[in-house]
Amino acid sequence: MRYIPNSPEERAEMLKTVGLNSAEELFDSIPAELRLSAPLKTPPAISEMELLAGFEEMAARNLAARRPSFLGAGAYSHYSPTVVDHLISRSEFFTAYTPYQPEISQGTLQAIFEFQTLVCQLTGMDVANASMYDGSTALAEAVLMAERVTRRKKVITSASVHPEYLEVVDTYVQHYGIDFKRVDYDAASGLISEEGLHALDDQTAALVIQSPNFFGCIEDVRALAERAHSVGALLIVAVTESISFGLLRSPGACEADIVVAEGQSFGVPASFGGPYVGLFATRDRFARQIPGRLVGEAFDKEGRRGFVLTLATREQHIRREKATSNICTNEGLIALAATVYMETMGREGLREVATQCAQKAAYTARRINELEGFSLPFNAPRFNEFVVRAPVEAKGLLSRLASEKNITGGLALSRYFKDRPNDFLVCVTETNSRKEIDALVDGLKGLTT
Amino acid sequence: MANVPEDLHYSKDHEWIKVEGDVGTIGITDYAQNSLGDVVYVELPKVGDKFEAHESFGSVESVKAVSEIFTPVGGEIIEVNESLQDEAEKVNTDPYGDAWMIRIRMSHPGEVDSLLNAAEYEDFTKAEEE
Fold it and tell me: The domain containing residue B86 runs over which residues?
């Protein structure tokens, strides 16, 4: 449905119908001293030419955007086929408001239904929602859902889950009386530790893991599912790099109960503050406990296939405090971008991207590991991210790599892990050429010898 | 005309309770199921959950709305009618029989005395309709 703002004539007609002279009168109930009487302090209007020149000048100051980059850690540089932007820019989709009324929105609803179908196929789960704000809030919603399903208050997670995801979950659960407990990762493998798993007991609602985890290490999801299920807890799997679905066994096939993911890798630019899109999928038997919107398939009275919001009684506009979540929307446009990306790439294309990422990352890791003084501290299998230990403090090294070699080399782990001053996280995607990778390796070598 | 069996006690929230010793069997009334329309889902508590009188112990979802269901007496859940998970429509066809919802061990059996009898409940529903 196109969004068409109303005309001055239509506004005048509406005001006349309700018996008012101006739109200002609609605000009469707000005390005069609370209303802004002065004009907003905005600079005077400028021409389109000046505006574009101003923005281009500002964009040119963002040097990092044009450097070869090996930064991942939750936001990933992938190639987005031009058809993605082309299709999401169509006016039927490109509006600030996603209309859900089936009478006028079959296109939007069908796109969301396809998105849900693709998310189910990708994660190996039965049912997916229409999307959430981003991967971290999807994880928080999964934790709340596990509490509803199990009626238990303890949730175990590993310090190898993205630290910012953990902070978001802390924020969500702080007033629910949920004990969100972090256990250690194993210093040799980078995976959740065996000792940590001893925290699982019959009061545990869920075990939360990320795989590939924050260090890029691939957890043994099937074994962890067994451990969680043995005490009656759910296994929640978070994925920040959704391209990994193209290569790794799906969490659903490994018996996960809830799978959440950040969908930014699917055709959405890596930008500070988003907008991103969260994927959320689970088992049929938990469908009533899912947060957020769900689009279902239905048939009209003439038997024609159509789409409509379904199981809406979970939502806050119907059930208020008994709702499964305070989200009552989805990331419509970004979910559409992810849908177009997935459908353009297809099963084969996604596997090809994932394979390139894994192979280029393996090459990069091997080359860096051969450098004098450098090592790879974790020995678990990895996908496209890995931790490097430098012979010097990583933060300074990466800063010199940027200023002297014009390469963004990754993320210094000291930002989140004070005990890892020399470690940094490197991410390699299909967008990194062999030339860039070799320049990274040479740069690291040059700055440490 | 709604069916109101003589041997049950009733709440103003339209639940019935059948008392046997200190155990009460609870469901929703014929009048309630009729007002709700086709029931599609029943959400019930777990065995061992404890409730005070008039507390919500679950919900009934019909094609029209979701309604909370309240226990007329306090106590501990000792049995839940699991068959309603798959056959919620029984609430419409047999509200006083197959569609019982929970059995509760009453903490204060005296609470039953404050409930309505069949004749009082019938008057109550008539008054609600007017």
Answer: 9-129
Q: Identify whether B1 is part of a domain.
A: no
The whole-angstrom distance between B95's CA and the closest CA on chain A is 22
Tell whether B19 is covered by a domain.
yes
CB atoms inside a 10 Å sphere around CB A240 = 29
Q: What is the ipTM of this complex?
A: 0.73
Question: B67-101: b or e for each residue (b if 16 or more CB lie within 10 Å)?
Answer: bebbbbbbbebeebbeebeeebebbbeebbeebbb
Phi, psi of B120 (to 5 degrees): -65, -40
B46–A151: do the CB atoms touch at under 8 Å?
A: yes
pLDDT one-digit tens code per residue, A72-122: 999 999 999 999 999 999 988 988 778 888 888 999 999 999 999 999 999
CB contact under 8 A, A318 and B66: yes
Six-digit token string for A401: 């790599």
CB contacts of A319 in chain B (<8 Å) are 66
CB contact under 8 A, A322 and B68: yes
Domains of chain A: 66-79+346-448 (3.90.1150.10), 84-341 (3.40.640.10)
The residues near A303 (Cβ < 8 Å, ≥ 6 apart) are: none
| CATH number for position B62 | 2.40.50.100
Binary contact (B59, A322; C-beta < 8 A): yes
Counted domains in chain B = 1
Dist. CA A123–CA A253, nearest whole Å: 8
